Amino acid sequence: MLSMEGERVRRVISRAMVGTKGRFPSVKSGRIIHWESQLERDFVRCLEFDADVISFREQA
User: Which chain positions lie within coiled-coil regions (predicted)?
Assistant: First the structure.
């Protein structure tokens, strides 16, 4: 999630040496959505292509 100034609200902290995280360019949200797991990635894709969803944001 971004602050009012456009900065990330929190820094992702991971103790794992290798993690699954990434970014998804969302047309509905008009910005890059950051995801931290494969489950979140898949859910973001579902939200992006669901006709009933107007917009969404990642977790804070």
Answer: none
The count of C-alpha atoms lying within 13 angstroms of the C-alpha of 57, restricted to the half-sphere facing its C-beta, is 7
In Å, how far are 16, 17, 22 from 32, measured between CA atoms? 24, 24, 10
18's tokens = 């290798």
Nearest residue to 31 via CA among 1, 59, 9: 1
In tens, the pLDDT along 2-59 reads 455 556 666 666 665 567 789 999 999 999 999 888 999 999 999 999 999 998 888 7
Q: How distant, in Å, are the alpha carbons of 4, 27, 37 from that of 20?
A: 27, 22, 5
> pTM for the full model?
0.65
